[in-house]
Design goal:
The structure is a homodimer. The first copy, chain A, is an all-alpha fold. Chain A folds into two domains: about 40 residues, Orthogonal Bundle (Arc Repressor Mutant, subunit A); about 140 residues, Tetracycline Repressor, domain 2. Helices cover about 75% and strands about 0% of the residues of chain A. The mean pLDDT of chain A is about 90. The interface between A and B is large, with 43 and 43 residues. The structure holds a DNA duplex (30 and 30 nucleotides).
DNA sequence: GTTTTTACTAAACACTGTTCAGTAACTTTG
DNA sequence: CAAAGTTACTGAACAGTGTTTAGTAAAAAC
């Protein structure tokens, strides 16, 4: 039953986005009363957590191809490229993971957090591998990882939350590509 | 009357944040009925636009000290520093300006947009001045500006939307500082 | 066959944004 | 001055949220 509810929530989220998702629409889709949902999920936040987990899993799957790249520098680049690609292709998922205000209070206890942290750790480890291989002059792995992440996240969130209106729609993706290339260049001389 | 409503909205927003702000709470504070508000503002979005303008003005004021710096490179650095500083000090304003999903549809017509664009133009012009002064090897002003903006915005939004839980609270500001220094270093060799 | 447990829901509550019919006071007009 | 019109405002409602509670019908256990 939990699966049924979550699956319906998933579908509605994909169809109508965040705003179109509400308890009554889920209930209608699974042909149960709204009250029934509360027998299986404490509140709407819990459904959100579960959806965030789906998003985290989708993100992990999207990044998976980078895992198998031997060379740490190439792996880092591909990881970053795929990260941005995921955000641009699945703005709703990205939004849910990194831009939603709502339910962060006890997220640390959730599977979603574990999954997200695993992906993040992989990223940091790749940066560490680059540091170990003397790809950078700097050895401050944490700051390097954070800096690169900020840039990628900044790009995606400006896009997702539509703060790129000063650029015509058709140049936005191109600009993101150029900026990504630029940060790679910058990182090379770090 | 419009001023009265907006001033109340402003206060409530500062006190209770985005979520505590609703029509009835504004009405209560100014001691009018909720319906009255609709005589002066079309809907809640219009009040939002007005608040966004306040936020944009607050941001401009915060960045003002950078304007008078002669040296373009120093000006750019100080501008960036103040930008991040504004975001960390006034997360609610920053949120309203760059992270709120809601009312972006017709924002281009709003004063807020004009004000925000002016600030943004100043930023791009400063980058252009650096390019003209051969501070960078690259001459792609647009991409440089966008890249720097993405990094700053990424830092602030990860902070504002509380996606830095993997770092202990006390290191977050420090990490931001280090990352800012790092992007400056990176930009120097751009 | 009676009792207990399970699975579910209708109806309500409290809270949103928003609208509309109506009212009381002030202004204009004959 | 009285009638008509205009202005400023509101009570009450509507529709849409998340959520709770009392109750019911069916299945399971005894």
């Amino acid at each position: 039953m939990r699966r049924l509810i979550l699956s319906a929530a998933h579908d509605i989220f994909k169809e109508k986005g965040y705003d179109g998702l509400n308890i009554r629409s889920i209930a209608e889709r699974i042909e149960y009363s709204p009250a029934t949902i509360y027998l299986y999920y404490k509140d709407k936040n819990e459904i959100f957590y579960a959806l965030q987990y789906e998003a985290a899993a989708a993100k992990r799957d999207h990044l998976l191809p980078a895992l198998s790249i031997e060379d740490p520098w190439k792996r880092l680049i591909e990881f970053g490229r795929l990260y941005v690609d995921f955000g641009l292709k699945h703005p709703d998922w990205y939004d849910l993971l990194f831009l939603t205000r709502a339910p962060m209070e006890h997220i640390e206890n959730q599977q979603c957090w574990t999954l997200g942290m695993a992906t993040h750790s992989f990223f940091v480890e790749t940066v560490q591998a680059c540091v170990d291989a003397r790809f950078f002059k700097s050895t401050d792995t944490e700051t390097i990882a954070y800096t690169l992440w900020c840039h990628a996240h900044g790009m995606v969130s400006l896009f997702v939350r539509e703060r790129m209106r000063m650029y015509p729609p058709e140049v936005r993706a191109e600009l993101a590509k150029k900026s990504f290339a630029m940060i790679v260049k910058m990182a090379e001389s770090l």
